[in-house]
Amino acid sequence: MMAKLFRAVIMGPPGSGKGTISERIAQSFGLKHLSSGDFLRENIAANTEAGVLAKTYIERGLMVPDHVMTRLLLPRLEEMTRHSWLMDGFPCTLAQAKALNSTCDLDLVISLNIPYETLKDRLSDRWIHLASGRVYNMGFNPPRVQGRDDLSGEPLIQHDNDQPEALVSRLRHYKDVAKPVIDLYKSKGILHTFSGTETDRIWPYINSLLSTKIPSRPETDTQHIPLP
Ligand SMILES: Nc1ncnc2c1ncn2[C@@H]1O[C@H](COP(=O)(O)OP(=O)(O)OP(=O)(O)O)[C@@H](O)[C@H]1O
Ligand SMILES: Nc1nc2c(ncn2[C@@H]2O[C@H](COP(=O)(O)OP(=O)(O)O)[C@@H](O)[C@H]2O)c(=O)[nH]1
């Protein structure tokens, strides 16, 4: 008999560790880590119609409109009928959550609750490999060669958006749009919130929660598959 498929979402403000924790979940439990940011970057690189449109928003530091996000993502999720997945970065508005709701039943939502000072410190030290979206932190997970991506050797950059001046308004925006989404998942009884200042201390709790819901998988079995 085929194991039941598992569908989860991870939410949290910028810098809360969604990407970092998603990678650990993907490695430990063999879920596919789907990322809205990766998906958008791939569409931009491929010059798709939606990618060209999304780029005009991302370049201005704006959210991509809901209808563009749902039109891009939902058909891809609908195709994933044989895979368990964890979605990072979507939904982030109530309209996106409602659209996702009409496509699939989520089993679990992880919400990360991290203090502002921690977010500020992490993001001001976050370095990104633009083409892949791989992230580093000079203290927590530094690249092997300073300023260079581990896999491609290409230069790493910092986003202006990650600097403290931009962070306050990004966080305010996150709180406004995420609140009704969190309330929705709470009312469905699938929300699990984790608070703390260190990913390594939060991780064991997430790990044990997931262990009660899905069998763990050997590391060699794992994959991070960006959506095409
Ligand atoms: N669900 C979404 N709805 C609207 N826009 C989105 C969504 N997900 C991603 N985006 C857009 O794509 C950009 C890149 O997303 P990505 O998740 O890689 O990075 P980010 O903004 O640095 O987020 P974080 O700091 O939380 O990692 C976002 O800044 C936003 O403009
Ligand atoms: N110092 C520190 N940095 C962390 C920790 N967890 C994640 N990071 C770093 O903080 C930054 C934000 O994490 P990321 O996973 O990108 O968060 P996201 O924006 O929610 O996807 C990255 O540079 C991570 O490497 C932690 O526990 N301590």
Automatic annotation (TrEMBL):
Q: Do you know which Pfam families this protein is assigned to?
A: ADK (PF00406), ADK_lid (PF05191)
Region (LID), start-end ranges: 125-162
Q: Does the keyword Mitochondrion apply?
A: yes
Which catalysed reactions does the entry list for this protein? a ribonucleoside 5'-triphosphate + AMP = a ribonucleoside 5'-diphosphate + ADP; GDP + ATP = GTP + ADP; CMP + ATP = CDP + ADP; CDP + ATP = CTP + ADP
For this protein, the Enzyme Commission number is 2.7.4.10, 2.7.4.6
Q: Which domain of life is it from?
A: Eukaryota
Localization recorded for this chain is: Mitochondrion matrix
Locate the Adenylate kinase active site lid domain: which residues?
Answer: 126-158
A cellular component annotation (GO) from this entry: mitochondrial matrix
Keywords assigned: Acetylation, ATP-binding, GTP-binding, Kinase, Mitochondrion, Nucleotide-binding, Transferase
The record's section on InterPro entries has: Adenyl_kin_sub, Adenylat/UMP-CMP_kin, Adenylate_kinase_lid-dom, ADK_active_lid_dom_sf, AK3/Ak4_mitochondrial, AK4_mitochondrial, P-loop_NTPase
List residues binding AMP: S36, R41, Q96, R170
Q: Which GO terms describe its molecular function?
A: AMP kinase activity; ATP binding; CMP kinase activity; dAMP kinase activity; dCMP kinase activity; GTP binding; nucleoside diphosphate kinase activity; nucleoside triphosphate adenylate kinase activity
Identify the stretch(es) annotated as NMPbind.
35-64
CDD domains the record matches: ADK (cd01428)
User: Which residues are noted in the entry as a ribonucleoside 5'-triphosphate-binding?
Assistant: G15, S16, G17, K18, G19, T20, R126, V135, Y136, T199
Domain observations = Consists of three domains, a large central CORE domain and two small peripheral domains, NMPbind and LID, which undergo movements during catalysis. The LID domain closes over the site of phosphoryl transfer upon GTP/ATP binding. Assembling and dissambling the active center during each catalytic cycle provides an effective means to prevent GTP/ATP hydrolysis.
Cross-referenced HAMAP family: Adenylate_kinase_Adk, Adenylate_kinase_AK3, Adenylate_kinase_AK4
Q: Which family does the record assign? A: Belongs to the adenylate kinase family. AK3 subfamily.
**Physiological role:** Involved in maintaining the homeostasis of cellular nucleotides by catalyzing the interconversion of nucleoside phosphates. Efficiently phosphorylates AMP and dAMP using ATP as phosphate donor, but phosphorylates only AMP when using GTP as phosphate donor. Also displays broad nucleoside diphosphate kinase activity.
Instruction: Give the protein name, as stated in the record.
Output: Adenylate kinase 4, mitochondrial
